[in-house]
Design a protein that fits this description.
alpha/beta, 10 strands, 215 residues, three-stranded antiparallel beta sheet
C-alpha cells in the first residue's frame, strides 16, 4: 500500500489518491527498485514473475512478460538460477526486470546502482538508458552521480534539505549551475559568493569580495 501523506496530496494522472482503495489501485501502476535488491529465496524466474502473480496474471501471459523483461536486462540465461547465488550486478538486473515486468506507468529507482563496482554500474546505466525509451513509464531516478543523471535523465532536479535548488536539462545544469547545491552536484570545487551586477549578450559582471569579475 501507499502510505497516506502526512501533508499535502498525492495525485496520479490528475486524480487524488485519497482513500486506501485509491492507494491500492495507484500502487498497482507503480514499480519500485530499492538500493539493495530485495529478492526472495527462489529462482530468478519466480522473482521476476512475483508482481504478476500478485496481480493474478495467467501462466502463459506471465511467462511471456517474464521472458521479455529478462531479455531486456540480460538475465534470460539466469532464469533457472537461485536468487541467492547471484552476483550483486546480476541481482540488480533481476530487480530491474521485476520492476519493469508489469509495465508500470510510474517507476521509482532509489539509487539502484550505488553499491555496484564501476564497470557493472556503467553497464547497467547504459542498459537502463537503452530500455527506457521503449517504455511509456515516467521514471523518478534518485542518484548522487551526475554521470548517471546525464546518461538517463531528460530533466534533473537538485534537492537540498528537501527543497528544489535547481532543475532543468541535465547537460545545461551541469555546465551552468545557478545555485551552490547544484554547483556541488555538478562537480565545481571553487564556489564563491557574489552579486550579479549586469548580464548582457551572454556576459556577466559579478561583484565578489576581491572586486568585480567579468565573464
Amino acid at each position: 500500500l501507499l502510505a497516506a501523506p502526512t501533508k499535502g496530496t498525492v495525485r496520479i494522472g490528475g486524480k487524488v489518491a485519497a482513500s486506501e482503495a485509491d492507494r491500492v489501485l495507484a500502487r498497482r501502476r507503480i514499480g519500485f527498485v530499492a538500493t539493495t535488491p530485495s529478492l526472495i529465496d527462489a529462482s530468478v524466474r519466480a522473482n521476476i514473475a512475483l508482481p504478476l502473480k500478485f496481480r493474478g496474471v495467467g501462466r502463459i501471459e506471465s511467462e511471456k512478460h517474464v521472458a521479455d523483461a529478462a531479455t531486456s536486462f540480460g538475465v534470460a540465461a539466469l532464469l533457472n538460477r537461485a536468487a541467492p547465488t547471484l552476483s550483486a550486478g546480476e541481482a540488480a538486473r533481476v530487480s530491474l526486470a521485476r520492476a519493469f515486468v508489469t509495465r508500470p506507468e510510474i517507476l521509482f529507482l532509489d539509487e539502484p546502482f550505488v553499491r555496484l563496482d564501476e564497470p557493472t554500474r556503467l553497464a547497467l546505466t547504459r542498459n537502463l538508458a537503452a530500455v527506457l525509451p521503449t517504455t511509456d513509464a515516467t521514471v523518478v531516478f534518485v542518484t548522487h552521480d551526475r554521470s548517471e543523471a546525464a546518461a538517463i535523465a531528460t530533466r534533473v532536479v537538485v534537492l537540498e534539505s528537501g527543497r528544489i535548488a535547481q532543475e532543468g536539462d541535465p547537460a545545461r545544469l551541469i555546465e551552468h549551475p545557478h545555485t551552490r547545491a547544484a554547483a556541488r552536484w555538478a562537480g565545481f570545487e571553487n564556489v564563491v559568493d557574489g552579486r550579479l551586477l549586469e548580464s548582457r549578450a551572454g556576459h556577466e559582471r559579478v561583484e565578489i569580495a576581491a572586486g568585480v569579475v567579468l565573464d
